[in-house]
Amino acid sequence: LLGEQGRWSAPKPYRPGGEEDFQSLSFAADFEVLRPEEEEVKVKVSRYRIMGRAAADLTVLINGDRVTKDSDGMFSTEVLLTQGANNFRIEASDVRGNDKVVIRRIVLEP
Questions:
Q1: Average pLDDT for the chain
Q2: Residue 55 needs a FRET pair 20 to 30 A away by CA distance; which of 4, 101, 102, 107 works?
C-alpha cells in the first residue's frame, strides 16, 4: 500500500502532482488572523470572537471546523472558552493541498 513500510524503501507521504508542483507550507494567497493578533492573549470573559481574512479560493478551518467567509474574504467565529489555556489551530488551505497554519492561545483568567 502507498506510504506503508516496505522492504525496498522507506515510506513517503503521498501528495498528488509532481515534485515541481509541490509548495511546502507557503503559498501566495492572502491569509491573516486579525483577532487575536498575538500568539497568546489573556481575557476575563468566556466568549471570544476569532477573526481574519482569507483569499476567496482558500478553505478556512478553526480546530477542524470549517468557517464561512463573506464576499470580502472576512471570516469570524465565536468560541466558548474554558478556564485556563484554550488553544486554537487556524488553518487555510487551497485546492492543491498547500496550507498555512496559525496557532493562537486564549487564556481565560478568573
A1: 84
A2: 107
